[in-house]
Write a structure and sequence with these properties.
The protein contains 5 helices and 8 strands; from the N terminus they run E-H-E-E-H-E-H-E-E-E-H-E-H. Helix content is about 25%, strand content about 25%. It is an alpha+beta fold and about 190 residues long. The strands form 2 sheets. Strands 2-3-1-4 form a 4-stranded antiparallel β-sheet, sandwiched between helices. The relative contact order is 0.18. Helix 3 (about 80-90) crosses helix 5 (about 170-180).
């Protein structure tokens, strides 16, 4: 039995740096033995099937393959379709009434508690706000991430010391949910 996963690569193809062409990423994933490999956008989103049930091992293997092929390290997170559907369904904001640019999801390599963000006074950033979920942070930025003061505050490296974090806008999250649906389970 195989599971459909999304690989989320952190910080590639931004401003011409750390280039990983999507065709090469598809080739790498296929070379690792994964099936039904597809990519979405140029920002490091891939979908594939695997018999493995170990997301961490899948991410580590992909990180090693990228470093061997391109000569630089890229942090990767791998999440199965059921997890992606669950975090999308658990969104604490009215996602169906918002534009995709107003809502963002940061994925974490491990669970993160509120104590990590205790130094942030959320009231200072209203109407922007964030909420924590299952290995995820939901960010509501009504004017988009490019103008978000809270987004800037959340981007401080000290907040994420010791974990891998990578963000996607809500449109991308929904597309990854769609792409990771198991064949034959379109309604699930």
């Amino acid at each position: 039995m195989t599971t459909t996963y999304a690989a989320l690569l952190r910080g590639i193809n931004v401003s011409g740096h750390r280039r990983v062409p999507m065709a090469d990423l598809r080739e790498l994933l296929s070379g690792l033995g994964h099936g039904d490999v597809r990519t979405y956008l140029q920002s490091g989103n891939a979908v594939f099937t695997s018999a493995s049930e170990d997301e961490s091992a899948l991410a580590t293997a992909l990180e090693r393959a990228i470093e061997q092929r391109f000569g630089f390290g890229v942090d990767c997170l791998v999440r199965d379709g059921a997890y992606l559907r669950a975090v999308a369904d658990a969104c604490p904001f009215p996602a169906d009434t918002l534009e995709g640019k107003q809502l963002h999801l940061t994925f974490f390599s491990e669970p993160v508690g509120p104590e990590r963000f205790a130094s942030l006074d959320q009231d200072r950033y209203l109407p922007e706000e964030f909420r924590l979920g299952d290995r995820a942070l939901y960010l509501y930025a009504p004017n988009g991430l490019g103008r978000s003061k809270l987004g800037d505050a959340l981007a401080r490296p000290a907040l994420f010391k010791g974990i891998t974090a990578t963000s996607r806008n809500w449109n991308t999250v929904l597309k990854l949910v769609e792409l990771t649906r198991a064949p034959g389970n379109a309604g699930a």
